[in-house]
Every structure is written in C-alpha cells, then in structure tokens.
C-alpha cells in the first residue's frame, strides 16, 4: 500500500473542510437549492438549462462548446433552451410521451445533447449508444428496451437490425437524404428549425426515469441501468465538491455520452452548476487533447488514467508547447490511477490528478480525492459527503482496517439507479446483504479512511489462506522496465494449488522471448512473494479494454476456458 502523501493542492476549494462538511451534510439541505423545493415542479432540464436561460444576466453565458475537425460551435443557456425545445416539439409531433424510450445512436455531434435535453423536457427516457456498436449489440438493446424511436445518422443506418425494429415507429436522421432502408425514416434537418422555440416542460416525479444506459454484465447480457430525474442532487453536489465547479467554470469531460461519465459530467452536472461543458468530437491524439485544453481555456479536466498513459507515450516534450495556465484541476475515473501515472501528470502537466471512483449503477462519483485534502497516490480517496461506505467480508460483516473485502454503500443517495430494465432479479442481486448496496469491487481501507481498489470480486487470487487482488501483482509486473501494461487472472486450482497467469504488453525496444519471460517471473517473485504461483506469462500486442480503460478480464478468462469471448472491438462499451 502506498504510504506517500501529497499535500492539498487547493486548500481553498469549495469543499474546504472535508471532515466538517461530511459530518454535517444532509441531502435534504441540498434540495433547498433547487427551484422544485418551493414549487414542487420537478424536471432536470429546467434546473440545468431553463432557470439559467430565464435569468437576463446569465442566459447568454456559454453552456456548451463543441469542437470537431477544427470547427467550433458555441451554445448559450438560452440557445440550448430554444434548440432543445424545437427538438422536444419534434418528438411531440410524433407522439412521444412520458416513459417512451428514444435511442440516440450518433457519431459525436451537438445533436446528441439537444436530443438528451429534449427527452428530459418531456419525460422521455433517452438511451445513448456507442456509434461503434454492431448488429448483435444493437439487437440485444432493441429487444430489451423496445424504443419508440431512434435518432441516428445515415452512415449508421445499415447497422440497425431490421428484424429487431418492431417497436420502432420513427427513425430520425440528423442529415439527409435517407437511404430508404426503413419506411419510417424522417430527415430532421430542415424540419426541426421551423418548429417553435418554446416547449412547455413536462413536470415529473423525482423517480421518473431519465435515462437508460447499458453496461457490461459479468454473468449475462448487458444490463440496462435506469436513472431518474432526482439524480440531479448527486450530479450537482459532486460537480461542486469533487470537480470544484461553480458558475462560469469551464469543464472538459473527455468521455463519450454513451459512457455514463459523458452523460453525467459532460452534460447535466456542469449545467446544474451554471458551468460550461467542452466536448471534443475528434478521435484521440496527444496534440488534439493538449490543444483542446489550451484553446478553450479549460479550468477542470475530467479524464481517464488510460488517457494519461497515451499522453505519456507521446513524449514529455509535447506538453511544453501548449499553455495550460487556465487548468486548475485534473480528475480521473475508469481504471485505478497508478502512482506512476499520478507522478507523470504531476511532473509533466504541473497538476496532480485526483482519482475518483463510481460506477454506472451509482449514478454519481462516490469516492474521491478532494482538492482540499491530501492525496495518497494509488488511493480511490474517501467517500463523498452524503455517501456512507464500508468494506464487508464474505458474511456481510465489517472487515478490519487494511483487510480486503467488498466495497459496499449504504442505499439512499439520490443518484442510485432505480432498477435494471426488465430484470428485477439482477437489480436485487446488488442488495444481497441487508441495508447495503454491493458494488462488486474489492477494496481495502486504511486507518485514515482512504480506500484502495484491489480488483473485482471475481478477479481475486487465493494465495495460501488469504485472497489478494490482481492489482498488487500487476503493479509489481509494471515495475519491470520491459513491461508496458499487465493483467493477471486466476486459473483456479490445478493439482490442489492456485495458478496465476499473466498477460503483458511490452515497451518499445523489448521483444518477447523465453528468456524475458523467465526474467519477469523471477522479478515478480523476488519483489512480491516467492510463493506466488505465477505459472505462465503471455505476451500480447494489446490488452482487451473498455473505452474507459478498464481491462476486460472476462475476455481473457473466456479465452482460457475455450469459450466465446466476443469481438473485443465491439465490447468497448
């Protein structure tokens, strides 16, 4: 466990006293900051957009900056209200009402965000889909959610499986002409602009579903996680306390809206704070990322450890060509931020990245390293105010300090998912211990309340009488100069003994060989434990990962067992 401590980077952050705020925090107090607290009229689109648009002093502030291929489009809060109202009127004309589902299957474009807001205005459930999804992935989602409509682009139209489109009454195309593949195609461009720029908000209950987002399941097909309008409380408070957003702050969350981070912290969270959201629509390149930070004077950047690695691979000289003087805060999410990634960013970008933890099901950041608190590199941080966390053993009892167990959260925070679409048993599985939400993530907690990720509960490796997380072994592997990335899995008991298998990618200048294989094994046992049953190491060109950089261990396990692992290019969501 990492013992290093980095002093607070910004003691004057909005959350300037963690312990004091955490102890006195009340979600009921936060409710008073929303207009619906007094009116009883609830809708997240009103709180995120309309209330700013109605303020003459704030309506013209930038809400969204979208860049793609060097072209920049800027939208004020007033413009987002008017444009999303036109899109809402389009949906009304075609019969959409509260509870209907709309799939958003688009390449990166502003229309995604207009459609999201339009759905929120009407109580329609939106579901953003990765534009890389293939035929089979789309079929699963269509058959599960049975959407009334799909917004897409002609270039993606041929991917839609016709036999699974029975529920789809309308296929909205952002551009024309249509291809005529479906009889219900509607070209939006040229039509939506003629519709009224005003649309009445449909007031809903706090539990009314807002969006449906699909996430990988370890034991079944993708799960449709349902979130509601009341999520807005968690969105706003984490944007404020973790990302340090306030009115006018420029935030760049470099995640696709089909990933929950892109939906929550690329749209709703910054707008609820009156902040500006930057969206970069181009594919990743180090120069594009650095230029985006400079060009749009980004103050807060929410990114992934994987992005840090890719930037580091581009060299330490490149950042010096750009002006990052406006950048005040970096936060990360996805896989665990390693100490090596932390120190690279701190030295090269002159900002210490603050790792965070949450998952699609939690709906908001739940653990974080705060700007006003010390950082322990390698730690997930501490619970966000309003979140009660614990480490539970296999019997649901509290595990001792520094003992690994499953991360559990006390139910009741407002952004917690309200269900798994059409699958109540999978939802109930999260609550197998009374009064706790089980995350499936294995962690340890130190004496100061910092949490450390140790892998998923099905990634555990038994060594003697205890379980160890793969992260510990992978960290030692990554210290070898030849190793670029590493992942280990348990092969189960062979001859009564647990066997561990490692999968590695190599740094430039190193070639796979039997000699290097033996050298790395010896290195790990010398630096971790001579009893570690690291039976085999395999060199790969690339490790299977999600878009956020999480290793797809289940793909490696499936391959080891000779089971279908799927097309990894299509598993990235």
From TrEMBL:
GO biological process terms, semicolon-separated: acetyl-CoA biosynthetic process
Methyltransferase is among the record's keywords: no
Please tell me whether the keyword Hydrolase is annotated for this protein.
Answer: no
Q: Which InterPro entries match?
A: AMP-bd_C, AMP-bd_C_sf, AMP-binding_CS, AMP-dep_synth/lig_dom, ANL_N_sf
Q: Which residues form the AMP-binding enzyme C-terminal domain?
A: 472-550
GO molecular function per UniProt? acetate-CoA ligase activity; ATP binding
EC number of the protein: 6.2.1.1
Q: Would you name any one GO CC term?
A: cytosol
Q: Which top EC class is named for this enzyme in its record? A: ligase
Where's the AMP-dependent synthetase/ligase domain? Answer: 56-421
Which keywords annotate this record? Acetylation, ATP-binding, Ligase, Nucleotide-binding
What is the superkingdom listed in this entry's lineage?
Bacteria
In the UniProt record, the signal sequence range is none
What the entry lists under Pfam families is as follows: AMP-binding, AMP-binding_C
The record's Gene3D superfamilies line, in alphabetical order, gives: 3.30.300.30, N-terminal domain of ligase-like
What is the name of this protein? Answer: acetate--CoA ligase
Recorded source organism is Desulfomonile tiedjei
């Amino acid at each position: 466990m990492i013992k290093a401590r980095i002093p607070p980077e910004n003691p004057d952050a909005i959350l300037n006293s963690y312990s004091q705020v955490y102890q006195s925090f009340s979600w009921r107090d936060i409710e008073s900051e929303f207009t619906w607290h007094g009116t009883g009229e609830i809708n997240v689109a009103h709180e995120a957009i309309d209330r700013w648009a109605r303020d003459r002093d704030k309506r013209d502030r930038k809400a969204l900056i979208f860049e793609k291929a060097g072209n920049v489009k800027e939208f004020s809060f007033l413009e987002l209200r008017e444009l999303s109202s036109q899109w809402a009127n389009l949906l009304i004309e075609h019969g959409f009402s509260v509870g209907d589902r709309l799939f958003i299957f688009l390449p990166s474009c502003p229309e995604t965000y207009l459609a999201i807001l339009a759905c929120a205005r009407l109580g329609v459930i939106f579901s953003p889909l990765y534009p890389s999804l293939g035929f089979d992935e789309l079929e699963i989602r269509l058959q599960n959610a049975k959407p009334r409509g799909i917004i897409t682009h002609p270039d993606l139209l041929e991917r839609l499986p016709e036999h699974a489109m029975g529920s789809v009454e309308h296929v909205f195309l952002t551009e024309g002409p249509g291809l005529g593949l479906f009889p219900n195609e509607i070209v939006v461009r040229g039509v939506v602009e003629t519709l009224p720029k005003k649309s009445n908000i449909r007031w809903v209950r706090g539990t009314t579903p807002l969006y449906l987002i699909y996430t990988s399941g370890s034991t079944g097909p993708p799960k449709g996680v349902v979130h509601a309008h009341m999520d807005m409380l968690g969105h706003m408070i984490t944007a404020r306390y973790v990302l340090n957003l306030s009115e006018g702050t420029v935030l760049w969350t470099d995640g696709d809206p089909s990933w929950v981070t892109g939906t929550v912290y690329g749209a709703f969270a910054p707008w609820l704070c009156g902040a500006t959201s930057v969206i970069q629509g181009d594919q990743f390149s180090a120069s594009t990322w650095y230029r985006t930070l400079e060009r749009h004077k980004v103050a807060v950047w929410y990114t992934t450890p994987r992005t840090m690695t890719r930037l580091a691979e581009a060299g330490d000289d490149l950042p010096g060509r750009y002006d990052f003087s406006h950048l005040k805060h970096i936060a990360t999410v996805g896989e665990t931020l390693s100490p090596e990634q932390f120190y690279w960013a701190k030295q090269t970008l002159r900002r210490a990245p603050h790792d965070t933890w949450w998952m699609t099901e939690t709906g908001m950041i739940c653990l974080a390293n705060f700007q006003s608190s010390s950082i322990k590199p390698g730690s997930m941080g501490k619970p966000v105010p309003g979140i009660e966390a614990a480490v539970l053993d296999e019997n649901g009892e509290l595990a001792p300090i520094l003992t690994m167990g499953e991360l559990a959260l006390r139910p009741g925070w407002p952004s917690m998912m309200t269900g798994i679409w059409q699958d109540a048993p999978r939802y109930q599985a999260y609550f197998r211990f009374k009064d706790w939400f089980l995350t499936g993530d294995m962690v340890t907690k130190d004496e100061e309340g910092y949490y450390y990720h140790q892998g998923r509960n099905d990634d555990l490796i038994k060594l003697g009488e205890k379980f160890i997380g793969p992260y510990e072994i992978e960290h030692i592997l990554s210290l070898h100069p030849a190793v670029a990335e590493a992942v280990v899995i348990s092969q189960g008991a062979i001859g009564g003994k647990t066997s561990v298998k490692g999968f590695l990618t190599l740094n430039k200048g190193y070639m796979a060989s039997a000699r290097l294989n033996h050298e790395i094994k010896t290195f790990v046992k010398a630096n971790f434990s001579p009893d570690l049953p690291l039976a085999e190491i395999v060199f790969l060109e690339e490790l299977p990962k999600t878009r956020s950089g999480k290793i797809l261990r289940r793909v490696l396990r499936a391959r080891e067992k000779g089971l279908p692992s799927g097309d990894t290019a299509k598993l990235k969501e």
